[in-house]
Amino acid sequence: MAKENSNGTIGAGMSEEVTKKLNKIAEENPGEEGKVSSHTPGRFNKPRYRKPETVEDALAHYPAHIVKLVNLVKSNSDIRRYTSLGILNYLYQKNIIEEAKGYVSFDWTKFSVTNRGLRTEYRYTEGFFLNCLIASFTSFANAAQKIIGIFCSKEFDTPFSEDKEVMNAAIEAAESADESATEPNNE
């Protein structure tokens, strides 16, 4: 609604023509105080886009194959860490950045590298990203094996022996759960 001046009239100090237009708009569109009227131009009329926070929100906006790939790095801190280290190392080796330090952040449609205050965005279709993501699983497996070995040496009096049958059954259960998971039809 148009603002009123101190004596309660619209448009004090404005031309008569502008005052008439404001009064006409106010009569046609009473609205509520503080709300944006339909006559407000441009950006205020458009609904505001909210960045997806959960996988379910992301699936509503993006294809499932992209959400699943991005979820690998967004939901697994060690995979994210190893992938980030690989990306920084790759960019350093290619002389794109001056030192293998910085910060890598992952969004639903792209990832960005911040180094020395400069931020560069890349798409997930970059070959070096996919190579670094795949390599991160090997790094994760090696680190996990060391951690498990240290745990077993401190907690058990005798060396721990792996039971291949139990491990294979667990792997099969995980694979069948992944295969039977229903996917939205937005691939």
What does this structure look like?
The protein has a 3-stranded antiparallel beta sheet with strand order 1-2-3. Strand 1 (103-106) and strand 2 form a beta hairpin. It has 2 domains: 1-48, no CATH class; 56-180, no CATH class. It has helices at residues 16-28, 55-61, 64-74, 77-93, 127-155, 164-180; strands at residues 103-106, 110-115, 118-123. With 187 residues, the protein is mainly α. The chain has 6 helices and 3 strands. Mean pLDDT is 80; it is low at 1-7 and 32-46. The protein is 50% helix and 9% strand. The longest helix is centred in the C-terminal third of the chain and has 29 residues, at 127-155. Helix 4 crosses helix 5 (127-155).
